[in-house]
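--- STAGE predict ---
source: upstream dedup step, 1 unique chain passed
mode: sequence only
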Amino acid sequence: MLFKIINCNPADYVNDLNRYLALRNLITSYGLRKNIVILGTDAINQILNSNIYDTPTKNFVYEIDITRREYHQIVPQLLVYCIVDFNFNGIECSLSNNQFAIRMGYKYFVSTSNTEYVNFITEGKNDFDMYTLIAKYYVRKISPLNLGVGLNFCQGAGSQCKQRFDDLTNDSEITLCIIDNDKSHPAKGKGSTANLFKDFDKEYNNNSLAHIIDVREIESLLPIKVIEEVVCENKVPKDIESLDIIKAFKTVNISFREYFDHKEGLSLKNAINLDSKHGDYWLSILHTNHKFASSQCLINETCYECHKCGKIEGFGDNILKRSLDYMNKLNLNSLDVEPDILTHWNKIGELILSWGCIPNSSPTRTS
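--- STAGE serialize ---
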């Protein structure tokens, strides 16, 4: 994250251990490329001219001084940044020019845990790796900012995401959480995990933010060409058939993959049940495929429990891992992401970059 330090007088901290530790931790965070730090000219000069700061800290500050103008120009282009006020206690968040500023007192940075990479809660390690890949793609191909991304993986494990989020928030650790919305129909509500998060959690009110993605599951964000490569590599007939059906249905309704269960698939029975509760969506799409169109269940929009229900098979629980393995072998510049998926990648990439931005360079030498 980008930390802008204000109301800081380093020369006065010879007998103020907490302010001294907080300042040194923040400066070291920059030197180790864990976060971006902006210091005013007067504070920089006080550190360089003081005997209470060691050589590594002064070397880090030299570079902060060199990059200060560059990072000042970056600030307005981030969705959020943090103001560390050495004359303030507490946390508050303000909005100006469509940008959020989290204002925190120095006491939160006396502990080194708040100057590590930003905490990032996801529902599993594969989710974390996928979002990291999206952020790297965004940095490489879309964002005009010359930044890197650094995040600290925090296991959420489904319903435990909310408890982990609350624990880190209450401990004043800066935390971003991204989870699936688990919507299986456009008119259906969010899933049980997403519903645990209150409106307050999903707004910029504190040192943390929960973001619910706009699609059912993280697998919905996989580029179709990546799934195609993975499926064709394994040559499983049912997967190839499902891929062809999914591609065809997406031409009928471009939002198809936003609600489709990529792991388990979709049966006609489930489609009938969902549409009967929430309104027409799935059945209109299934009517365009001969595999389903002649079914009496579909014609009458009623499940007769014949146990011969047609189904679009899913790709299994490991489709995300298999796709990640394939994408990690590619140069990101050659990754083909279709426009509708790219819209989601842009939104997620901008969010992650704003929370997890770090200098795009190697750590500073300390000697």
